[in-house]
Automatic annotation (TrEMBL):
It is found in: Cell membrane. This is Chemotaxis protein PomA. It comes from Neomoorella glycerini. Belongs to the MotA family. One of its GO terms (biological process) is bacterial-type flagellum-dependent swarming motility. GO terms for cellular component: plasma membrane. Its main location: membrane. Residues 251-271 are annotated as: Disordered. It comes from the Bacteria. Keywords: Cell membrane, Chemotaxis, Flagellar rotation, Hydrogen ion transport, Ion transport, Membrane, Transmembrane, Transmembrane helix, Transport. It is a multi-pass membrane protein. Residues 15-94 form the Motility protein A N-terminal domain. Pfam families: MotA_ExbB (PF01618), MotA_N (PF20560). Residues 102-220 form the MotA/TolQ/ExbB proton channel domain.
Amino acid sequence: MRRIDYMTVAGIIAGIGLMGGALVMGGNPKLFLNVPSLMVTVGGSFAAVLINFSFQDVKNVFGTVKQAFTTDLMDPEELIELFGELARKARREGLLALEDDANRLDDPFFSKGIQMMVDAMEPEMIREILETDMAYMARRHEIGQGIFKTWGNLAPSFGLIGTLIGLVQMLAKLDKPETLGSSMALALITTFYGAIMAYMIFIPLAGKLGLRSEQEMMLHQMMLEGIISIQSGVNPRILEERLRSFLAPKPRRQPASEAEIAQEEVFRQRT
């Protein structure tokens, strides 16, 4: 189920709120609204992004950006518990009994792996196919992050270009000294826009997408190892502990003792 990432939403609302509050308290906020400056920074930097990437890459990134605001990734602890249940079921009823579970899983990667295992494909082939899926998924994620990183790097440069344009226009009006102050202020607004775009929007979005990609890759690596382990007939408790090695030390549970594993084996043989 897709969930809202409240940290991203709160960060953007707090950033806009603090920035807007500072502009209002500092005087007339309308001084910071200038359409030509927006055209140079937003339009100019976006045009450069179009040159740097393919149309399809840019088109896809608008679908990718929603991943920064929402997430449908499984909780790693829930995934470990699910693998424990699947492993116990496979031991009791055989691998074919997991076919219904493959159809119920929401994650296409997970479902595909379980289905290949049910279809009795060789473990090496399953690993190769799933690792290929992961490699191309990582490539797609890199492109999405790369677009926002590039846009974030270009925005301040276009802000500087806008400032240079404003300075040239200001110098052309030296015969009207009364306009120099307002012309200088307008020239600096593009630099302000460029900095806001880069440091409050695009670079943080690229960072959040990178974090999301790492989380998804870790979950898929856990799924891959879990599927191969079930197919190999690994003890469910050992499988759970193996998957917990992917997690940071704090969420890990105490590893299963030899006595617990032996008890598990006795229970399995009785059932």
